[in-house]
Amino acid sequence: MPNKQIGQQPLVTLLSDFGDRDTYVGIMKGVIAQINPRLRVIDLTHQIPPQDIAAARFCLMNAYPYFPVGTVHVAVVDPGVGSKRRAIAVEFAQGFLVGPDNGIFSGILSQSLAMSTTGYAYAAVELTNLNYWRTPQPSKTFHGRDIFAPVGANLASGVPFKQLGKEIDPASLVKLHVGECKQTTTGVMGCIQYIDNFGNLVSNISGSYVQGKTWNVQAAGLSIPGCETYSDVKVGEAIALVGSHGWVEIAINSGNAHSRLQLDWQETLQVVLT
């Protein structure tokens, strides 16, 4: 489990679907500063589409490796806020996760599980210790302010993980299923797991499948050539390539693949090795 290096300043990241028009993000930062003004806070993004847990899952999964061990990641995309869904914290090899138990952490945790040879490589608690909440009577609509931000700040300030609440079975955490990736006789079948701001269609097919091979993607009735850079095709043409995140994606050179091809989340595609 994570250990902070001696002298390392505590670090908290924030991710939400709050946008930047309202004061929600600023209020969460204020709550964190009230607990420990020395904490460093980094905004991963607050532009997750409203209630889009799948997009939050993807963004967290691809961001966490770039932060120091011991970082506390607070994520609030929470359409079930105020309901019986659990508020949780997770301790894993790279740090800590704080947020709702709605599948938002399932991308990170699936990777942790895949890398483990001894079963579950993480521990989880339900946030039942009111001493680390902002108030024992939290708002029914803003747990980011009243539970998740203060818990994250306390955790980053050195409160022991197990003091945050009661331990829960890691196997009981909600998993968000985004579709399976299956090898076929001609390549790999997968689906779209994320659509970025440029309209690029990111699949759940690892780039390792196509490394050093000639390939194309079959999607939307098209055969889209697998290339290395956007400029390998003419402006306006479709292209498949491995993005910086390591997943096969479909793009339009200087265009928007989502609007052009009318493909959406979880729609299927196939990588064909030629």
Let me know the CATH homologous superfamily of the largest domain: S-adenosyl-l-methionine hydroxide adenosyltransferase, N-terminal
Strand content: 25-35%
Mean pLDDT: 93
Order of helices and strands: EHEHEEEHEHEEEEEEEEHE
Major sheet attributes: 8 strands, antiparallel
CATH second-level architecture of the largest domain: 3-Layer(aba) Sandwich
Question: Radius of gyration over alpha carbons?
Answer: 20 Å
Q: Give the helix tally.
A: 5
- Number of strand elements: 15
Characteristics:
2 domains, disordered N terminus, alpha+beta, 29% strand, Rossmann fold, 19% helix, 7-stranded mixed β-sheet, 5 helices, single chain, 8-stranded antiparallel β-sheet, Elongation Factor Tu (Ef-tu), domain 3, 274 residues
In words, what does this structure look like?
The chain has 274 residues and is α+β, with helices and mostly antiparallel strands. It folds into two domains: 11-172, S-adenosyl-l-methionine hydroxide adenosyltransferase, N-terminal (Rossmann fold, 3-Layer(aba) Sandwich), CATH 3.40.50.10790; 182-273, Bacterial fluorinating enzyme like (Elongation Factor Tu (Ef-tu), domain 3), CATH 2.40.30. It is 19% helix and 29% strand. It is built from five helices and 15 strands. The strands form two sheets. Strands 8, 9, 10, 11, 12, 13, 14 and 15 form an eight-stranded antiparallel beta sheet that branches. Helix 2 (53-63) crosses helix 3 (106-115). It starts with 10 loop residues before the first strand and ends with a strand.
